Amino acid sequence: MAQQDCTQALKKTFSHIEHQTAQLTRVLAECRLLAARTFALPERLKGTEQDDIDEIAVTALVGQAARTRALQHFRHFFIQQQSAKQSSKAAVRLPGALCVAVDSSQHTELSSLIGDINQHKQALKTLITQTVNLPPTARFEWVHQHLPGLITLNTWRQITQPENPSSINFGWANKQIIKNLTRDEVLVILEKSLKAKRAVPPWTQEQWHAHVSREYQDVASLPERVRLKIRRPVKVQPIARVWYAGQRRQQQLACSSPLLVLCQEHTAVPDIGELLNYEAASITWRHKPSAQQGTLLIPRLHLWLMDD
Fold first, then answer.
1. Cα(271)–Cα(256) distance, integer angstroms
2. Cα 69 from chain centroid?
3. Whole-model pTM?
4. Fewest Cβ atoms closer than 10 Å to its Cβ: which of 16, 29, 96, 224?
């Protein structure tokens, strides 16, 4: 797709998401509220995005205050809508759940509206990350040239609508992104860094090029079939554990936005639990599998040379 066509698609898709989300929040504001809990998390200040997180203090809201905060969160698309001190690089999260009473026709209407919004959110994500065919830094400039201040993660984050849950409880998850790579795949990554000819503070362009060149040589000297793995930790994030009693099934979901539960007359209102403060020092592992042994080869990429 030509870049001009991508630009038109970007504006059109976002406009549709914005319009439909406004319609969704209007309808949800008019529905009879059955239960609502949201858990506001502290703002991440500019310059602290990479800091380790040992504690997170949660501020709980219930009832109408929780619904108001949830509906605001669904429409939070731009950095202009938040504090000037808040980082635009950190995800804005509001875990929780919102349960409203609906009749059959309202359930159909709202479910269709949510599905349409999510479809266009995915289309926007694909357009920005794949279709426009620009490197990450250029993608950022392209998006903000046409939609100044857009928070892409907030915009393309899906709205989750569990169907007839019995209970919703909340917790915290620490995860790792794990990806197996061949030696040649890592060399391609490093080669792209060399061709970019950029400077990464505190290095000058020449120093950075020399640094990446050494990394390239270290990897190139390895056997072709060596085992390499990226193990990149992901910062702690809130999750929801949704229990379906009729199916005796639990579903664990990332919960960066409130879950929407549409309760018809014949469905019970789910029990909604609390999200407690996060304290890294107090975590106890039920079962922590032993990590595979290896050597950290390139720290900035979280690239490990795995033992045989």
1. 19
2. 19
3. 0.80
4. 224
